[in-house]
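Summary for the steering committee. One of the milestones for this cycle was to obtain a three-dimensional model of the protein with zinc ion bound, which we needed before selecting residues for the alanine scan. The sequence and ligand used are listed below.
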Amino acid sequence: MTDLPAAPVPSSEPAPEAASGVDPAQVDPAQVETLREHVEAQFAALQADLESLVRIPGVSAAAFDQAHVAASAEAVAGLLRDAGLPDVRILRSDRPDGTPGAPAVVARRVAPAGAPTVLLYAHHDVQPPGDAAAWETDPFEPVQVGERLFGRGAADDKAGIMAHVGALRALAALGAESGDGLEVGVTVFVEGEEEAGSPSFGRFLTEHRELLGADVIVVADSTNWKVGVPALTTSLRGLVDGVVEVEALGHAVHSGMFGGPLLDANTLLARLVATLHDDAGDVAVEGLVAAPEPAVDYDEAAFRADSSVLDGVELAGTGSIAGRLWARAALSVIGIDATSVAHASNTIAPRAAAKLSLRLPPGQDPQAAEDALRAHLEARAPFGARVTWRPGEQGKAFHASGDTAAMRAARAAFSAAWGTEPVDVGVGGSIPFIADLLEQFPDAAILVTGVEDPDSRAHGANESVHLGELRKVVLAEALLLRQVAAAV
Ligand SMILES: [Zn+2]
C-alpha cells in the first residue's frame, strides 16, 4: 500500500457471519492437515528467507539509494527460481517522465492444458524507515519478539512475497509426495515501486500483457481482521491529490507597516483549508459520492488505540467508523509550504501552499472528485486571494463482488487454514495498480488478501508481522491454489 493503510480494528462483538457461498466440503480436511504439516516443516527456512529480505533496505522513494531496490529484486528472483518456477525475469518499463521504472520480478509456470492461471502479486520495495529514534530495533535488522518479527517491510510487503514462495514450496512438497501439488498456471509478479505509487505500472502492463494475463489475481498486500480472524479485502479507496497555492502579495512586506488591512498568505491558506470540513468534521466538498455502509464496524476504543489518537481528542465525522474509513471520502492536508516558526520574521507572507490528499470511496470517479475539489477551492478564495490548484496523482477505488467462484474458493481456503470464516472488509488505503489490472484484465477475479494485522504498523515505526498468522496465510494460499483449479 502506498499509504498508511487504516488497518481494520476488531469490534468487541463476534465476527459477523461471512457471506453465503462458503462450502467447506470443497476443502479436503486431510489435505489441509498434510499441507499444514509441510508449511510447518518448511517454516524455519521461510522465516530465515524473510529475514534476509528485510535486511535489504529497498526503499523506492527517489531520495534513497536505488541499488538496494535492485538487490531486493535479485533476491526475490532467486527465491522464486528455487521455489520451482522455470521462467524468472527481472523487467523494467519507463515511467511517464521517461526515467526507468524500478525492477519488477515476473516468474512463471505455464498452466497445464485447460487449467486456469493465477497471478500472485506482491511488492519488494518498502517505505522509508522514518525517524530511527522511534524504532525499538534497527529497521533493517529483523528481530523476533514473541510471535512477531519486527523490521521495515516485514509485513508490508515482504510477508506477501513469502506467502507466495511458501505456498509454492508447500505444494511442491505435496506434489513430490502425492504427485499432484500445483495444478494451475502460476505467474508471480513482484513489483519494486508500489510505495512510490507504481508510476511505470501502466506501461509495464501494456508491454508485458502476455506475461501477466490470468483468470484469478491474488494481491497479497492487505490486512486481516485480527490475529486469528482472516479477512478478504473487498473494497479499497481511490485517491486524488494535488497542491493548492494561495497568493495575496507580489512580495513580502513589513507586518508593522502593512499589517491590519492585509492578511498574510498563511492566514488566508488556513481559512481556505478550514472550509474543507464541516463542523462535524465531515468532508464539505460538494458533489462527492458515498458507498453503502459496511456490514462490519470498528470498535472506537480499538480504533483509538491503533491510531494513537490522544485522549480527549474527538474523532471527526458522522456515521460508523468503518463507514468513514471505507465508504466515504476523507481529506487530509499532508504537507504545507508556509513560513516556518524557525524562520519567522516580522513580515506578511505573500504566498503559502498545501498538499491535499483526498480519499475516494468505491463508486467515485477520480476526475469528477478532482473537479469538485478544485471548484470548491476556487469558489472560496479567501478575501479574493489568487488560488491555484496543481493536480497530482489519481487512483481509482476498487470493489470486489463478494460472490464469485474465486471468492468462494478463497473463503473455503481461508476458513480451513484459520478454522474460522474470513470477514469481508474494506480498507481506507489504496493499491494504485489494481485499477490498471482491472482495465487490462476485466474478466479476471481479483482477490485482495492480507498478511498484516491491526498491530503490523505498516509505514510506521516498529513495523512487524505476526509469524503465527504468516503460517496460516501460507497455508491458505496453498489451499486457494488447489481450490482455484476446481472453482474456475
Ligand atoms: Zn504494501
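Key point for the committee: The CA atoms of residues 248 and 385 lie 5 Å apart.
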